[in-house]
Specification:
This protein has two domains: 86 residues, Leucine Dehydrogenase, chain A, domain 1 (Rossmann fold); 129 residues, 3-Layer(aba) Sandwich (Rossmann fold). Strand 2, helix 2 and strand 3 form a beta-alpha-beta unit. It is of the alpha/beta class. It is globular, with a radius of gyration of 19 Å. The strands form three sheets. The chain has a six-stranded parallel beta sheet, sandwiched between helices. Strands 3-2-4 form a three-stranded parallel beta sheet, sandwiched between helices. Helix 6 packs parallel to helix 7. It is 41% helix and 16% strand. Bound molecules: guanine. The site of guanine has 7 residues, from strand 4.
Amino acid sequence: MAAEIIDGKAFAARVRVRVADEVLRLKAAGVNPGLAVVLVGEDPASAVYVRNKGRQTREAGMESFEHRLPADVSEADLLSLIHRLNVDDAVHGILCQLPLPAHVDAAKVLAAVAPAKDVDGFHVSNVGLLGTGQKAMVPCTPLGCLMMLRERLGNLAGLEAVVIGRSNIVGKPMAQLLLGDSCTVTIAHSRTRDIEAVTRRADIVVAAVGRPEMVRGDWIKPGATVIDVGINRAAGTGGKDRLLGDCHFESCAEVAGAITPVPGGVGPMTIACLLANTVTAACRANGLAEPEGLTA
Ligand code: GUN
């Protein structure tokens, strides 16, 4: 059986159209949604992400505020910027691009972001709200995965889901979201015994371990939906890097019912969900109805 390939690029484009519609609705209600992105230092990959975020924010009709700070900025100065953004009514979402330089305590910075503006969903308040089934700001990548799963499978209730990887950014929130949709959820990780057999039980596999092509086709239950969050760089031909997922695409696609490719699967959904979270934050800040289909 050849799996359906889930086109994350097309899906993300549809999410951005929905976001742009919501921005028009917000503007008609007198609210001009704005996202502030803070970039510390010159990391080239981070600079590319931040540029893309700014461009897509503007294309969706929202205000983009970019704050670039030197790599040797003091923690106190960075915290002071975050505090200013927290009280700025033109800013509905704040994202501090990670990684931060080693001399800055990243946990302290993430904790300083006002939870209502925490469009990354990294603040412990949002982690706790999500974990207790309350309205939270949800991390962008797992939110994107959930949207794709809901579109493909409809109601997820009762399905067996295995999340491979236990990071705070993807694995743990992904498991909470799937639990919120009434899946039976297992989190597998590097210490899991017989991870192949555990994964083979799953109707839904979300792979987020950061190990290239770890998940093989014989780990997959026939017909399962496979979401590959991995973005691993490997040497390609002609001196160019190529991207590999956490799943071995060819063998998994022979068995799965549907699978996301790498690149072009989960990746494009992350910024789309950042925009969705900004709209959600702007609605909540102004007591307006939240957009349907753009939140957990
Ligand atoms: N660096 C790489 N991905 C992310 C992300 O999703 N959020 C933040 N804040 N930094 C990142």
